[in-house]
Amino acid sequence: MTTRRERIRAKIMARVRIDENTGCWLWTGPTSGTEGRGAGYPRMSLDGQTVAVHIAMWTNEHGYIPGKKELDHVCRNRLCVRYDPDHLELVTRKRNALRREEAKRLRCVEVV
Hints:
Strand content: 15-25%
Strand order of the largest sheet: 1-2
Oligomer: single chain
Largest sheet: 2 strands, antiparallel
Number of helices: 3
Order of helices and strands: HEEEEHEEH
Low-confidence stretches: none
Distance between the termini: 56 Å
Structural class: alpha+beta
């Protein structure tokens, strides 16, 4: 008999493609759309609720996220659901916002 944790992991991994170059586990299923700040995050149905896949994967493997923390995509890829520290990290909202702005600045420098 498989555990709930194993079933959730299998359900997620069934829709993941591993990027050989980055090591990211890329979600190939539905996302939160293409418009707005919250766009592009992986979504799935779990126990009748729509959930963010990266958060479901993290909590499945590490437990609940404390109230003052949120997940940051260290790899800067919103489709990544890999739950290790090179890809997802628990940070404060402030730290997440600072990293997001830093990544935007770096993208602007690369374009120029």
